[in-house]
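lol forgot to send this yesterday, sorry. struct tokens for the thing we talked abt
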């Protein structure tokens, strides 16, 4: 009696399935290590909401955890077969976005400006071009930056509680510029567009904090020079 099904074919399929499961399990192990480091960095940065004197030290400690992630990403890159980045990227997409947020927060607290994708990628030991292999996807960078807005809106409120009345104004200017920048993009990614829609609420919340500080007379008045334009000398 002849066999119409070649059982060896299924044996080969099983080998493929086993190999796939092994790759994904190894990836999950490394991703959990990255998540642990990101959690530690998050905990270190939470002090900014209760003690402004510890902002600098918190950033330093968070940087240590973030820099340790670079080694983990190198391990991930070694696990992912060549040319199959997007096949497995769902495993590390969320935590990468979270790390971009943490990097952006540290850079803002230290220097007051928005971290670039190139700098963020360098800190994590990642490339910026898809053709180079394991890289920082543009959408992951943008989603991570959008997470920053929510954290800064909270920071603005808590800064007032701690007696820093100028910081909310600086945050307002920064988030306003960020909002303007995102409006220049034609976003087709649903997740990115939805998260951008939430940005307007962060902007509004920060504006309310600034307004409350202003009407209470808690912020410093602008310099006298900015109120009046210097008079021109008469021409003889």
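and heres what i got for the seq, position by position
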């Amino acid at each position: 009696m002849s066999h119409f099904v070649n059982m060896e074919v299924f044996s080969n399929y099983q080998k493929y399935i086993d190999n796939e499961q092994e790759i994904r399990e190894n990836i999950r192990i490394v991703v959990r290590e990255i998540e642990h480091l990101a959690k530690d960095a998050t905990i270190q940065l939470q002090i900014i909401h209760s003690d402004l004197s510890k902002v600098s030290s918190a950033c330093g400690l968070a940087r240590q955890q973030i820099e340790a992630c670079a080694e983990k990403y190198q391990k991930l890159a070694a696990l992912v077969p060549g040319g199959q980045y997007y096949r497995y990227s769902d495993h590390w997409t969320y935590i990468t976005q979270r790390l971009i947020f943490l990097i952006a927060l540290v850079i803002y607290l230290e220097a007051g400006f928005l971290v670039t994708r190139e700098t963020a990628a360098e800190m994590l030991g990642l490339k910026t071009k898809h053709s180079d292999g394991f890289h920082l996807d543009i959408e992951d960078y943008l989603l991570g930056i959008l997470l920053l807005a929510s954290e800064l809106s909270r920071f603005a409120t808590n800064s007032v509680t701690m007696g820093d009345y100028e910081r909310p104004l600086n945050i307002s200017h920064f988030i306003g510029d960020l909002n303007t920048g995102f409006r220049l993009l034609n976003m087709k990614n649903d997740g990115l567009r939805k998260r951008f829609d939430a940005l307007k609420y962060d902007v509004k919340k920060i504006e309310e904090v600034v307004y409350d500080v202003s009407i209470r007379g808690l912020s410093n008045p602008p310099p006298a020079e900015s109120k009046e334009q210097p008079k021109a000398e008469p021409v003889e």
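The chain is about 70% helix and 0% strand. anyway ping me if u want another try
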